[in-house]
Amino acid sequence: MDERTRNPDDELAPSLRRTPDPIVKTPSRTKSRIWLGVVAILLALAAYQIVRFQRAPAPGGRNPQGAPQIVGASTVTLSNIRVVVNALGTVTPLATVTVQSQISGYLTDVGFTEGQMVQKGDFLAQIDQRPYQMLKEQYEGQLAHDQGLLAQAQLDLKRYQTLAAQNSIARQQAEDQVFIVQQYEGSVKQDQGLIDAQALNIAYCHIVSPITGRIGLRLVDPGNYVQTTTSTGLAVITQLQPITVIFTLPEDDLPQIMSALNAGMPLPVDAYDRANLRHLATGKVSAVDSQIDTTTGTVKIRAQFDNADNALFPNQFVNARLLIQTLQNAVTVPTSAILRGSPGAYVYVINPDSTVSVRPITTSAIDGNVTAVTSGLSAGERVVIDGTDRLRDGLKVSVVAEQPAAADGTPGSTGAGQRGGNRGGGGNRAQKPEGAKSDGSQPAPSGGQ
How many Cα atoms sit within 13 Å of 53 on the Cβ side? Predict the structure, then answer.
């Protein structure tokens, strides 16, 4: 072999020869294998969940495909519906009196306790009457003086008339005496008027209650000098029994109200607290305002209550419920059965073959948990009240719970008697199904008419 081509390593021992380095795995290859493993695990889990979901029953109580849909139902019935309108009212007393002094003087005594009930004529306060008593005595003395002059003038007139008849004195003297007598008669009447005025002032010093009611806080303390020009007065008395509530109603309700009042029919009114939960009192309409407010299109109504238990307090805000009329034998369904969508108001009617059909209806008044239906339904039919969000036209159903539709007649029930179910916001809303719009409407049902 040529020396130029000979490898020096060939001369070395086999144990000393170089061996090639083993292959070293780079970090990038290791990370790639880890990520591939993770992706494979995730894919396996996803496949497991899909298979599990397909085998498991549908959420929300859905039945397997082909099985009847489970729903709750109610039978359409005939019942009496109370047409009630709701309004916010203010408790207004029939009489509110500010007790004021009719004369000026020092307040010497107060005869009432703050917040107590007083009767008409009860003693309330005493003004110092001594100045008026002394004036009265002066006028009485002046009256006695003028009465003496009048008696003397009358005696002279009688004497002059006798002498004039005998032509003993001039006729003019007798005639002048007549006018002198009239002057003294006028003075006596004037003196008597001054005496009566002071007697009235003395009576005004003794202040009594002009009405029966509850007296408020004392506004003036004894020892103060009160005047007739004082605007605050001594105290305020408010009549509580009976008491009234003033509320406003839309002018559209006025014809029915006036028709009932003109026929002599009492219109009952129930008063509830401002939370519209607790019943306070029951009364009736006593008066209707003489004109409609053109700015709001409303009319004021006054209802009177006996208020024997003082449940109504002056200037209290209450919710008034006026019963306008009662619909006799109206077709009624539970309010929860009524849905709203493209066809308007509709219900799901259960057919004899256990399928459901969409039935458009027309509603009127709401009483408690039921609504009166003017068209679209007949008594004896069954409607779906629970599970409507999972229905479509023609779907087969299975009824698991059924209840009758009847007005509970409870005055305190939510939304009782709202005309058309949309006044006052207290009516029961229809159940909002899946996919319903934010405004409460529902998409048109499949196969809807």
Answer: 7
Query: How far apart are alpha carbons 119 and 45 in whole angstroms?
Result: 87
SS3 of residue 296 by DSSP:
coil
| pLDDT tens, N- to C-terminus, the chain (449 residues) | 444 445 545 544 444 454 444 444 455 667 777 878 888 888 888 877 776 655 544 444 445 556 888 889 999 999 998 888 999 999 999 999 999 999 999 999 999 999 999 999 999 999 999 999 999 999 999 999 999 999 999 999 999 999 988 888 888 998 999 999 999 999 999 999 999 999 999 999 999 999 999 999 999 999 999 998 888 899 999 999 999 999 999 999 999 899 889 988 899 999 999 999 999 999 999 999 999 999 999 999 999 999 999 999 999 999 999 998 888 899 999 999 999 888 789 999 999 998 999 999 999 888 878 899 999 998 989 999 988 888 888 888 888 867 665 554 443 333 344 443 333 333 333 333 333 333 444 444 544 43
Provide the whole-model pTM.
0.64
State CA 233 to chain mean position distance.
33
Q: What is the CA radius of gyration of the chain?
A: 49
Backbone angles phi, psi at 417, to 5 degrees: 70, 20
Alpha carbon of residue 67 to chain centroid: 49
Write the CA distances from 134 to 138, 189, 200, integer angstroms: 6, 19, 13
Q: Is 50 exposed, middle or buried, given 0-12, 13-18 or 19+ CB atoms closer than 10 A?
A: exposed
What amino acid occupies position 194? L
Encoding tokens for residue 265? 């029919």
Q: Is the dihedral of CA 9, 14, 18, 20 positive or negative?
A: positive
281 phi/psi in degrees, rounded to 5: -160, 165
Residue 92, classed as helix, strand or coil, is: strand
Q: What value, to the nearest 5°, has the Cα angle with vertex 410 and ends 409 and 411?
A: 110
For residues 197 and 219, the answer to whether their CB atoms sit within 8 Å is no
Question: Is the Cα torsion angle 251, 255, 256, 257 positive or negative in sign?
Answer: positive
